[in-house]
Design brief:
Layout (H helix, E strand, L loop, with lengths): L1 H26 L6 E6 L4 E2 L1 H6 L3 H4 L8 E13 L2 E7 L6 H8 L7 E9 L9 E9 L6 E2 L3 H11 L14 E8 L5 E8 L4 H12 L4 E2 L1 E2 L5 E2 L1 E8 L15
Parallel strand pairs: 2-6
Antiparallel strand pairs: 1-13, 3-4, 3-5, 5-6, 7-10, 8-9, 8-13, 11-12
Amino acid sequence: MKNTSNQLITLLLLVFVFPTLGFSQDNSTNELEYEVNRVYVPLSISKEKLQHASTINDLNAHCKSSWVKKYISVEISTRHKGKIRKVVSKNNVLSQKQKDNMAMADVGSDISINMKYIPDNTLKQNTAKESHFSFMVNPETKATYTGGQQELKHYLKDHAIDKIPAETFKEWDLAAVKFTITEKGQVANAHIFETSKDEKIDALLLETIKNMPNWTPAVYSNGTKVEQEFVLTLGNMENCIVNLLNIRRD
């Protein structure tokens, strides 16, 4: 009788404990984190932000008026129908002519700002300085993968992510593959920006990106299509390399 009781207890343990252990192991599996984000040009703004800009600082937050004792000239240069147009003012407040000049700039072209000023400092010989920067206006609609972001994640998961052991990326490890979506929606210039430290994985990632179906290209409101750069990242997004990618995680 005692042996029968022991066998029953053992059977119950087999039925209840082992399935629980198996479920626990499934849930403890670490999945490889991955994202695709747009890579922005060093300085770009939305059309809406351009329309509401009233000073040079609104176009470039790094241009601090507190550094300037006196403006000599602020020249805004644009390209309109292929021709260069320049409008000059005497301070950092945008004139209506400057606003109109920027609004009429050819889509996708650079808008250049050239400033001459006397810096605000305590030097005895406070000579005039010159500062320059340029920016572009982002298209209203960015390039998108056919079927949307969710379909893109499925494609990457099926063709690459599921073939890479999650333990390949440890602690701060990160891999990054940059690529361009052309005006025709095709993938171009795919290259490893940050290696996974494994040649086979790098080759798999490149092949997956290069073989992607066509995207819907980025387009301005007037119908002009432009190329845009993107980056696939795998691993720890807290890696300092992310700061070099110039992405904006929405």
